[in-house]
Amino acid sequence: MDLLNTLVDKGLRREVPSREEALAVLATSDDDLLDVVAAAGKVRRHWFGRRVKLNYLVNLKSGLCPEDCSYCSQRLGSQAGILKYTWLKPDEASKAAAAGLAGGAKRVCLVASGRGPTDRDVDRVSDTIKTIKEQNEGVEVCACLGLLSDGQAERLREAGADAYNHNLNTSESTYADITTTHTYADRVDTVHKAHAAGLSACSGLIAGMGESDEDLVDVVFALRELDPDSVPVNFLIPFEGTPLAKEWHLTPQRCLRILAMVRFVCPDVEVRIAGGREVHLRTMQPLALHLANSVFLGDYLTSEGQAGRADLEMIADAGFEVEGTDQVTLPEHRATAQGGCGSHEGAGGCGSHEGAGGCGSHEGAGGCGSHEGAGGCGSHEGAGAGGGVCGSTPAETTTAQAPRTDLVAVRRRGTGTDLAPNA
């Protein structure tokens, strides 16, 4: 297929495809799906080999969010029966992080629900970052706390944070359809603040909220312009008790095409499969590893994920290897550009630099990337699968399947409970 040959050539040269080419990837048929995966897989292997980075979420504060993000189980007015608790103490958070690191995770993503942190909240999280770093040598730490005020990103960086996650979620033209309590511009501003502070920026999207193909391409091209080191791709988890509970439109094939499109547009960036992979990719998850080079291990913020051991077995069976703490995630040109993790000016030196904390790439739960909750958090683990809120007809409904509500389970173990975590 000429389209795929062209996209592979562009991906190997880090050349941006055209919007028409990106849209054409989403419009390919199921008959061409394996060809699409194989083509995008060439680009993924060129920049990242067969390494898979593991990330682990720690939900520092769950529920009770004042924001109204339609996809989120922690939103204002949510009736989802999720765990609700206030800030974890530093030792509690470090203990939770250690479980994920023992399971093979390289990065810990610290997430808190809410519009954004107060200065006191930044102090809390800074203490937590320092504790985790002191007790776990070589760990990368990403924070995902919502919208940042001036100076807060710098304070997190000084405390030892390697990265900051804040997702765009959807296109600028449809953003107001999913959230009214903050704006798309607010999110862009927070990503800029992370960049300026020298943090490795992580920003991604949520697929399946009723957006059109054009919306998906719009948000991915906007992300490329922001130049994050990591792009988490979430697939909506339709939680009962949220406005999108009845929205089920994604198929495994659709999810794979979305991941392939992201890889072609962002060839040398850490692409993370975030929330909703178990619900929507299901048995097709191993194929997604040919497109993305990063996943979350174990459970998400408020929902259960695949068993950690099953994740490790899947990675090995598919012929991939878990990325070690001694390996640099990003390609050298990104890891060393401007002295830091990305290609952005002023990046503070996290990629491959000795003693830099090993930022490598980013966290969503990117780390965050998948955070279903947290109105300002940005990546919302629950994002995926369902749609119907962004205003346009879902691009693919002809092969709609019965809703797999049996795969949507509220997290009842790990952080905030007395039960052992899934790691």
Question: Can you give me a brief rundown of this structure?
Answer:
The chain is α/β, with parallel strands linked by helices and 423 residues long.
- Please state the average pLDDT score: 84
Rg: 19 Å
Largest sheet: 10 strands, parallel
Principal-axis shape: globular
Characterise this structure.
By secondary structure, the protein is of the alpha/beta class. The protein contains 14 helices and 10 strands. Strands 1, 2, 3, 4, 5, 6, 7, 8, 9 and 10 form a 10-stranded parallel sheet that branches. α9 links the parallel β6 (205-207) and β7 (230-235). α1 packs parallel to α3, α4 crosses α5 and α5 (119-135) packs parallel to α6. The longest helix has 17 residues, at 119-135. Mean pLDDT is 84; it is low at 338-398.
